[in-house]
Amino acid sequence: MANINFSDLVESISYVHNQLAAHAGKAVNISLTIRNWLIGMQIHEYELRGQDRAEYGESLFAELARHLQELAIPNSGKRQLYQYVAFYRIYPQIVRALPAQFRTNLTSGCEQEQIVRSATAQFHIDPEPLIQGLSYTHLEQLVAIDDPLKRAFYEIECMRGNWSVRELKRQIASLYFERSGLSQNKEKLAEMMQRGAEQAEPKLTIRDPYIFEFLGIKSKEVMGESDLEDALLDKLQEFLLELGHGFCFEARQKRILIGERHGFIDLVFYHRILKCHVLLELKVGEFSHEHLGQLNTYVSWYQKNVFTDGDNPPVGILLCTQKDHALVEYALAGMSNQLFVSKYQMQLPGKEEMQRFVEEQIRKKLGGGMAEEG
Question: Percentage helix, strand, coil, to 5, in the chain?
Answer without folding.
Answer: 60, 15, 25
